[in-house]
Every structure is written in C-alpha cells, then in structure tokens.
Amino acid sequence: MLTRETAGSRLRAGDGLPIGRLIRSVRRERGLTQYDLADALASASGNSSLGRDEVSRWERGKRVPGPYWQSWLSRVLGIAPERLRSSARLARELRWRQVEHAP
Length: 103
What we know:
Blueprint lengths: L3 H12 L3 H11 L4 H12 L6 H8 L7 H11 L3 H20 L3
Helix pairs in contact: 3-4, 3-5
C-alpha cells in the first residue's frame, strides 16, 4: 500500500517532485506568497479567475493544474515546461496509487 511515508521515501529517492511540491518549492525560493503567485498568474494570463485558493489546492495535491495553467506557471516561475509535465504525471500517478489502495 502506498502511504504518505512510502510516497515520501520514493520521492526522496530521486524520482522528482509531484507538481504541488514543485510549485510550492519554487514559489518559496522566489519569495512569493500564494496570493503573489495567483496575482502574477492572473496578470500574465489575463485570466482573473485564478485565486490563492486554487494555488493552495495545487500545492496540497488536491488538484493538478492543467496544460493551460502549466504553461503560465512555466513562464511566471521559470520552470521548464517538460519538468512541469513530468511533475504533473508523477502527481497523478501517486494519487491513483492512493485511490487504488484505499480501504
């Protein structure tokens, strides 16, 4: 069964970070709050529908940003699009494994 502990140890083994952890890590490195990131994404994209609550959902692994927001995250945070895509795949894989092994 995939638990938080086994998922964490797997991630530390060099498989990369799920997209939520990646976003949070880079956001903090840049000295941004979730509000700052949401505002920067809304401003860059011209799409005011994004708020801090959605950034929080991404970072907590409750949702995975789709290709539209991944492209804007790449531009705003300076993360390579390929890295975001692979991190999104990893996040989805981990989530599916948790669902498959849920009681």
